[in-house]
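Deliverable D2.4 — example input (structure tokens):
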């Protein structure tokens, strides 16, 4: 997956072969990518933020099913290990089976900025995107 910054401030995702995704999934992918990019650029050690685990638990409390429990445990382990590479692989996978990771991940809630929110919310809402 590759993100392209355009001169007008928009960001596009390019993946070969292209996979059609809903506008919501596209915005989730974009938000996660921008946040992970920020984490790397600022050398943030996610294992040092215990509030990420609190946010994860809060997000999990609103989700029903064993699939979410397993995903929560994987995300918890990756946060505790500071494994941003593994989190990135899961959060930026556009396939539907990775949706629970995007739903539960606390990274966007914790590390998003006004600029990131502006970029993400400027994306179209009513048309299929390609990721």
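Example output (designed residues):
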């Amino acid at each position: 997956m590759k993100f392209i910054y355009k001169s007008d401030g928009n960001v596009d995702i390019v993946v070969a072969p292209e996979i059609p995704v809903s506008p919501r999934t596209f915005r989730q992918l974009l938000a996660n990518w921008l946040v992970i990019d920020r984490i790397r650029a600022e050398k943030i050690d996610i294992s040092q933020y215990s509030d990420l685990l609190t946010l994860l638990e809060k997000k999990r409390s609103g989700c029903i099913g064993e699939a979410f429990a397993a995903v929560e445990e994987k995300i918890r382990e990756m946060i505790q290990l500071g494994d941003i590479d593994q989190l990135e692989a899961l959060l930026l996978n556009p396939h539907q089976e990775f949706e629970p990771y995007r739903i539960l991940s606390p990274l966007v809630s914790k590390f998003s900025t006004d600029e990131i929110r502006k970029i993400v919310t400027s994306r179209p809402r009513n048309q299929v995107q390609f990721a």
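The chain has one domain: 2-130.
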